[in-house]
Structure formats: C-alpha cells, structure tokens
Amino acid sequence: MSRLLEGRGELGALMRMATLVERAQVHLRAHLPEEMREHLFVGGFHQGRLALITDRAVWLTRLRYEQPRLLELLHQLPGFEAVTGFTLKVRPVRPTRPPLRQVRHLPEKAADEISSCAADVDDPGLKSALERLAAHAEKS
Questions:
Q1: Do the strands 40-46 and 85-90 form a parallel or antiparallel pair, or are they unpaired?
Q2: For the whole model, what pTM was predicted?
C-alpha cells in the first residue's frame, strides 16, 4: 500500500499534491489574523496559481489585501517557489462535524410501565422491542 501511495503513478502524485496543499493551508492559516483562520482553505495548484477558497465574500475581500504578504510567506516553504499568485474563490465550505447526539432520559417509573406492557404482549418482536426500550431507564 505504501509503495502504491508513494510511487510514481497518478495516485502517488495525488498524495504528494494533497500533502503540499495541507502544508500550505497550515502555514497560511498560522499567519492570518485569528478571526480569518478557519475561513481559509487551499483548494489546489494550477498553472502557477494556488487556489484559496473562503466561505464568505467578506473574507475574500480581506484576502485580496493580504495577497502580497501571503505569497511572500508561501515562498518560505520548500516546494512553493513556483507559485506566482492566487486564484481567490468564494464557496460554502462545510467542515465535517459529527451530528450532535441527542440524549433522552427514561424515568424508572416509565420503564416499569413499559415492562408491564411487554409482559402482556403476545407478539415476540414487539415484546422484545419494549423490553429493550425499558432497559434504557435511569437507575436510581
């Protein structure tokens, strides 16, 4: 697997480009004002220009003023000497976040009622489901 990812094929080149993009993003974010950092994403490299993506037009305007300084900072990194400028884009970027888990509480009295209902049910599937539900009760 490592031979495939680090090789000279298309996948190796893609992995190297992803690593470079990640390094550029980390480096540029570290030198931006704190309120801008989470809004800057490096999109890729094409014909000497590095794509900088932001989620709002207000950040794009600020990035335009920062371009000369950011280009200077980027040239400090090995492998980025060939970057001649930036392509700035506004795109809604949705970072992957796990969905919020909703925790519900089942009082012990409610669980007792559900258990008594399960005892009176003839259907095995429904009985099993009710018993599982009752098992989630808060223990005092």
A1: unpaired
A2: 0.58
